[in-house]
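My current task is to audit a protein record that another person submitted. I have pasted the whole thing underneath without changing anything:
***
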Amino acid sequence: MIKYKMFIQGQWVEAEGGSTIEVNNPATGEVIGFIPKGAANEAKAAIDAAYGALEEWRTLTANKRGDLLKKLYDLMLENKEEIAKIMTLEQGKPLQEARGEVVYGAGFLEWYGEEAKRIYGETIPSWNRNKRIMVLKQPIGVVAAITPWNFPAAMITRKIAPALAAGCTVVLKPATQTPLTAVKIMELIEKAGFPKGVVNMVTGDSGEIGKTLMADKRVRKLTFTGSTEVGKYLMKQSADTMKNLSLELGGHAPFIVFNDADIEKAAKAAVASKFRNCGQTCISTNRFYVHESIKDNFIENVVGILKNLRIGNGMEDGVEIGPLIDKNSFVKVKSHIDDAVEKGAKIAFGGRVMHSGVNELGGYFIEPTLLVDVTENMIIANEETFGPVMPIITFDGDEEVISMANNSDYGLAAYFFTESISRGFKVMERLEYGIVGFNDGMPSTPQAPFGGYKESGMGREGGHHGIEGFLEVKYVSIDL
């Protein structure tokens, strides 16, 4: 088995004592490698490196920083196939999806390589004829980036690209389940010629590494994607040093299909939104509200798509649905299905649990499942499932469904389908969500802001909005 290393100060290093953590293929259960089990000392070394490299990097011209990001973009595309295979092996998503993620993730490098040149200041007219007012934007400093397992490439580039463009240096902590994609990206960063210490990566004990990053006052910003529970914990830890925060947390996305919707289009978008990455995306739909008058037609269209989906190992040709990431995810998804059925929901398609541990496929697989007659008292209507289950709840009126859609502590993404522009604008404006798909089930793109309301987090990633969180605003008053 390959033993991988951490990347600190431009060097590939092991953890103290050589301790390691297994990395498993969720489709087969096989061990595919080992990563260093770093902890506080390794995290501190990475902070030292990032802080030491900060002055040189922040004073580099925007053009030079942009050129290096563009070089990294080119290298990611040149190595697309290798990165995609690594991602599928450690995360489980179908290879075709993984290829798409590499292209999507590389897009942030290209976008922010250009955005580095558009960090503009201001001059403001003064009330005093002898004074001049200037506003400067400067890099915030060392950034801690903690990324999740569900998008091992794109969540890294979405965080480090704006940080680097702004002139910040980075300490990256990738998810323990999927660190090998991060290792490959670090190899490409080294190959692209980034100065030593500008980007560092530590792996291992999440608790110890996170605690060290949060306690060190030299780390001025945390950018984190993960659960709301962990986000709140990190927020509390960061309070003593008053870090700037970007938190992209949990979701509970509604998908509304009105009676005037293009049903075929809505059904295709619903399946894409729900079953991409086996339902393991933060903006995956969790609640489907379908107008009573079109319910049967919509369900028929969805079933027609689901019956042709192929489930299996993502490395195999034609596979569209991969495994769940681990046993905990498997148990949670199964419990949501069981609870719904016990409370009166019916399985209109799927529902087959392909094992209760490790079966003939080796990993944790659940067949894409369509539930009907779902009600608001079921767990699946109130908690994020993060798996391949599509619950249908019916409604009659616009006011009713908007109220149901907004009845959540989360506010990341929402979707609705209608052919009425008037209705569309009214619904769009009233949905309490940071991302809204109006006749669109796949809204993510590098040039647009990504983030949520309420307990879905704070700050935005993507677009010109995404670089603002890595910049300090400095007001300068000059008395002539």
Notes: The chain has two domains: 6-249+456-479, 253-445. The mean pLDDT is 96. The domain at 253-445 is CATH 3.40.309.10 (Aldehyde Dehydrogenase; Chain A, domain 2). Residues 1 and 33 are 5 Å apart (CA to CA).
